[in-house]
Amino acid sequence: MKRRAIGQTRIQQIRPGRTDRGSTILLVIAILSLLVLMAITLSFTSRLEIASADNFASGVQNRIASLTGVDSTSLLLANDLPEGPSSRLDLSLDKEFLKLRPGKNAEAQYVLALNEPEALGREESRSLIQEGTTRQPRVLRPLVGTETSMVSLFDASAKININAADEVVLARFFDALGDEANISVNGKKVAAAIIDIRYGPDGMPGAANVDDDFDKDESERLQPNEQALNAAGLVDHVSRDPKKLIAKVREDVWVVDEDEEQARSEWRQGFVTGVDEADEYIADIRLPAYGDDVRFSSVQDLLNYPKITGAGVSRELLNAGSIYMTTLSISKDERLVDLQPDDKVDLNTATPIEIYNALKKLYKYEAKDDAMLQQFAVNVVDARDFDRIPTVFPGTGGTNRILGVERTPYIVEAYANSLTPDEEGDDGQYVEIYNPWDEDFDLTGWKLVGAGEVVSLNGRIKPKGFVLITDDFDNSADELDYHTPGTGSVYDIFDVVANTASRRSITAPGFNLLHSPGAYTLSLFDDDGNLIDSMTYKPDSDDDGEGLLSYQRVNPMVREATKLHANPFDVAPRDELPDTQVLRKLRNYPMDGPFVSPADVFQVFAGYAPENGGEGIRWNFPALATPRSADLEDVDLAKKPSIIDARLLDVFTVKLPRLQSRESTEMSKSEADRLAEEMTGQELAHYGEMNFAHGWDVRHGRINLNTTLGMGYVSLPGIDWDQAEDLMERRAELEQDAQDGLLEDGVLYRGLSDVLVDDTLFGDAPSDDDRLARFRTLLPHITLSSEAFLLVGQPKVEPDSPEGIQQATRIEALVTLDRGAPEYVYWHRLAP
After folding, report:
1. N or C: which end of the chain has fewer CB within 10 A?
2. Which range scores top for mean pLDDT: 92-101, 193-202, 794-803?
3. What is the C-alpha to C-alpha distance for residues 167 and 60, in angstroms, rounded to an integer?
4. Are 549 and 563 in contact (CB under 8 A)?
5. Mean pLDDT across the stretch 465-491?
6. Are 185 and 313 in contact (CB under 8 A)?
7. 540, 524 contact by CB (below 8 A)
8. Closest CA to 589 of 425, 759, 382
9. Which H or E run contains 60?
10. Which of 717, 736, 821 minimizes the C-alpha distance to 775?
């Protein structure tokens, strides 16, 4: 009984406990539900508050923009800023000045405030920097465009972009800044620290060992095929790693000297795409960075990194130099055609037709030979591709065929009307093939077409060697018993023998060169049937009976033939000989690799001869001169139909190879579908967002030579203070002439060609090669226009208003125009 009672008691004690636990669970659920409801309510309320705060902030921002005039100024900026090259006068958008520029809106009513102390001259600038009075603009000149505000306008590309400038520019800038501010600083050390911070903890652009911008497929598409590599003799002794192959191809064909070593290095870094290349660092602060990369949102951010401050960057130094620095600058690689912006043509992707059309636009008002422009167009294509098959300009053929220049043997002479009488077989006719290069070629399986039967070739042709194809070289295959003395074979007529590896002959019994008046084309095909060379000779009635005249190419790479005394086993006599510079370039011509920069266009052979002689046959590359050059008193380029000049820089560009987003018309549907299948959703979304920042025509961090001041000039490689002051003086004179109505504009450099021929920058260069090498060093850092501007605005105040009110509402806004409508990147209130 006792046990039962105890057991019953236990049961009775347990049952109430279970009931209490169920109630507790219900209570907990209720409390949790209440908490969830409260959380939802709070979240909703918080969102409302955030939205309200955002709306309030936008309202305040819009109100400030309106009060300070920044908003209206940005719209005027987008509408009235001249396209293309700009100057400080252009930035002023002055109404009277704009009347002078055709096609420009003359309704703008504001002026540019030149507040940087360097506008006063270097010495006064130095004293102001050392006194520490340059932190804020000293004078804010009024903008007349609004009744309630005044605004100053500055070109962001006139400043040093701390998110985009490379170590060279950063080092030169901080050295110059330290000198001007009388503060000891090691520019190289500071530059290295800034670059190190920008690349993040892993020390690489983007995420280390990751193809952040998904361009590896593009690099593989641009690799040379195995046939081309075999032709270059590279497959056997070079790793098949694509980057090494491309580097080796480029190194083998580019002239190896100290002047171009840096260019080759830049080419390897800039062209070879895939993993951890330089362009995976995104300098555009409007976009998310790849990996752990860092961008500075303001100049003062530099002080947040011990590595940078430890390198010598102090608040005092930044205060002295902040007016010369920016965190975003943008320019577009465009040109003007009849005052309208037009895309430049990419040397690496343009077709011969596109290149030719660009040249036609360039020389629209000049008497350039049309065939010469077509010839240069195919030469550009053959300079960049990896094969040795000349490009044929579309639509040309027969006697008018235009072929590009490749490293191949050439047909250089046709001896058609032999001294041997026709009734004796016209024996001794010949076609001569010449190898001007320093390597030999195997002609086995090649064909000569146009000389009677198709002639099959064999054997090798040595460097500077000849192969002569004839119907009778030495009478060994002659069926006639008698020939007029001194005739009957090449040997009998010219007393020459084919007795060395460099003087070979091939006898073809069915060989026959027509020589009645007309035009006849000889063609050379390789063993795969590719057209390698073509030459047209044009006999006339005067040829009959002369017997010792042939048609020869004075320059083997210029296909125009000239009637001269026959010259077997020798090159044609040349009235114009290539100079040392041309011979050096031709030694390893063509490049057989993508163009690195627009300056590479001057490595494209431009030799040409107008039909029937014209000016004579030229051995030239593009001239480093323009009609505006000071050294052209005796050369009128506009009247020289066979000269291509430095204005090519204003037409052509080099765009880094990269994929396009699915929305781009430059990507086919099949390519886009493949890309979508291979990428994850996150990758594809990220790629689409990043695409515009990688636009082919957008550049970040380049310094505008037309708007920068002395500190900007001396930050560029190769420019010292004497040159900078000379440039500033020249700009001031031009701008004064423009204001006086003597010039249409005050622009110092309208195109990159003006930079190349500027003697202030390169006048002491001992040669064209040296000038070009120095220009190549400068080119990656410069621009002539801008798409980002700093607006400093404040409301107008009555004369008796407190100064503090005026200063408290002064703001600086960075406005970009590269996406079309003005876009505010950041706002800063300028401290009193």
Report:
1. N
2. 193-202
3. 40
4. yes
5. 84
6. yes
7. no
8. 382
9. helix 2-68
10. 717
